[in-house]
Amino acid sequence: MTLPDAIADIANQSMPKHVAIIMDGNGRWAQQRGKIRIAGHKAGVTSVRQIVSVASRMGIKALTLFAFSSENWRRPESEVSALMELFMFVLGREIRKLNDGNIRLRIIGDIHGFSDRLQKKIREAEALTSNNNGMILNIAANYGGRWEIAQACQQLARQVSDGRLMPEDIDEARISQNLSTTDLSDVDLLIRTGGDHRISNFLLWQIAYAELFFTSVLWPDFGEDQFMEAIASFVSRERRFGCTGDQIKEWLVSSVNNA
Ligand code: IPE
Ligand code: IPE
Ligand code: MG
């Protein structure tokens, strides 16, 4: 086996199946440029597009992006409403491209908190892509990890009170099934941009064994290269077999460019 073949082998076997990202740092990116915060959120959309495309070309099975937390309602009203507008606009503009890319879009979070107009758009977008069998793209919006676990508890309690489930049959697998990531495997790699080292109530249950990758790069500056850096770091932490992270990254770059 030649060296590139060996690296390909290692990378293919150790690729993360489910990658989650806390996309942080939009506001600081804008402030550093003397712009208003929403300019940073707009610039962040370009990063989303790039990362969705490269992750799909890499063959990643599921990508879960944190777009708006249940705590983000505490931000100034003007920023929240600008974010909602942006979300509406981007959903409308990008959905066909996602569909052409065979990507299945799901919005995870309490969408009842959004306007009727936005909820309708979300349902339409999910329906349009529901038969695709490529990468699953979860966008976490009005999402909180504790909210999601509480939701799962409510669903299980209902099943118990209906007589469909015995309390002693509630186990970890059953809790997982009742989360919004129901049929997905746990997160293998969690990335947080923007320099902070915290989870901010994202996917608490699903990250139990995830590798954590923190970078100070602000989200609008996070592109294909930085994503591949994170994947290469994951692969090399998993099973290096004498290869360096740089060799793995080099192979990733060439394989994505040929995809
Ligand atoms: C993350 O960027 C995007 C959202 C939370 C919507 P921030 O807006 O948190 O950016 P910083 O952390 O203030 O720089
Ligand atoms: C986390 O970022 C939420 C999203 C990226 C959507 P925040 O900027 O809201 O997190 P904190 O407030 O710094 O913990
Ligand atoms: Mg932030």
Describe the structure.
This protein is an alpha/beta fold and 259 residues long. It has a single domain (3-257), classed as Undecaprenyl pyrophosphate synthetase (3-Layer(aba) Sandwich). The chain has helices at 3-14, 26-32, 37-57, 77-100, 116-129, 145-161, 172-177, 224-238, 245-258, and strands at 18-22, 62-69, 104-108, 136-143, 189-192, 211-214. A 6-stranded parallel sheet has the order 3-4-2-1-5-6, with helices on both faces. The longest helix is centred in the middle third of the chain and has 24 residues, at 77-100. The two termini are 22 Å apart. One 3-methylbut-3-enyl trihydrogen diphosphate (IPE) binds at residues 23-28, 68, 72, 83, 194.
The CATH homologous superfamily is named Decaprenyl diphosphate synthase-like
In percent terms, what proportion of residues is strand?
5-15%
Helicity range: 40-55%
Provide the low-confidence segments as ranges.
none
Q: How many domains comprise the coordinates?
A: 1
- State the shape: globular
Radius of gyration, in angstroms, nearest whole number? 19 Å
Bound small-molecule species: 3-methylbut-3-enyl trihydrogen diphosphate, magnesium ion
State the CATH architecture. Answer: 3-Layer(aba) Sandwich
With strands numbered from the N-terminus, the spatial order across the biggest sheet is 3-4-2-1-5-6
